[in-house]
Design goal:
Elements (H helix, E strand, L loop, with lengths): L4 E4 L13 H12 L4 H22 L5 H11 L6 H15 L9 H10 L3 E6 L5 H10 L8 E4 L10 H11 L6 E5 L2 H10 L3 E4 L14 E2 L3 H16 L1
Parallel strand pairs: 1-2, 1-4, 2-3, 4-5, 5-6
């Protein structure tokens, strides 16, 4: 079937993988929530996020940033108003801002794919709100190049659950066999996309867990994605 769309993962694929200390990412939020218990609250937030990802690995159910804040505050018996939780969420996201950078080849790769008449999608496993992702996509010029942007913080399930992939395919108006998924996670991205019938391109990331899976192609850079796509489309025309 004719290739009509390319869908990208975000972290580690379109954006550069950030190796950060999670305590640093949560410290300002903890200070907002209870300045006199900053270390204790920070540790609880780090633990709540880690537990959230551990649970996701078991049941694939998605979560939101607000839920992590509420879990930690509940465990510590902090009776916080909504505005305090909102301020803590903003502080946490602000801490991430200096670490969010898109790959230097992302804009050019997306432009080249679009110039070939392909639709472009994004599907990210995240508990961050849409507005935070969108801010960086706009800042770095990627937003106008991506036809639909899907975040699991707005879905019942995360990758590799089939429903996450089906959601973005429907938004693009393409069948699974007409789309390629590009990601850095063998299980979440490659296995998940293959389970619904998509072709896959793995961009290896040494920082993520391995999984026995066989992607249709392996690349080390985003410009190689364009080369692979051109090769496959050439075979379709021959």
């Amino acid at each position: 079937m004719t290739l009509r769309a390319v869908i990208f993962d975000w972290g580690g694929t379109l954006s550069s993988y950030a190796d950060v200390d999670m305590s640093d990412m949560w410290r300002m939020a903890a200070r907002r929530m209870a300045p006199d218990r900053e270390d204790e609250v920070c540790a609880a937030l780090v633990a709540a996020e880690a537990a959230s990802w551990d649970r996701i690995a078991l049941d694939r159910r998605s979560t939101q940033l607000r839920s992590i804040l509420e879990i930690a505050s509940g465990q510590l018996r902090l009776n916080l108003a909504d505005i305090a939780l909102d301020e803590a969420a903003t502080s946490h996201l602000d801490a991430w801002t200096p670490h969010v950078r898109h790959d230097g080849q992302a804009v050019d790769a997306l432009r080249q794919l679009r110039s070939r008449g392909l639709r472009i999608g994004l599907l990210s496993n995240t508990h961050w709100p849409r507005s935070f992702h969108e801010h960086f996509l706009v800042r770095d010029g990627l937003a106008p190049l991506i036809d639909t942007r899907s975040y699991t913080s707005e879905m019942p399930y995360t990758k590799p659950h089939p429903s996450a992939f089906v959601s973005v395919l429907r938004a693009l108006g393409v069948a699974a066999t007409e789309a390629i998924f590009v990601g850095d996670r063998p299980f979440d991205d490659i296995h998940g996309a293959q389970s619904v019938g998509m072709r896959t391109i793995l961009r290896p990331n040494a920082a993520v867990p391995d999984y026995e899976v066989h992607p249709d192609a392996v690349v080390n850079s985003l410009d190689e994605v364009v080369q692979v796509v051109d090769s496959w489309r050439g075979h379709e025309r021959s």
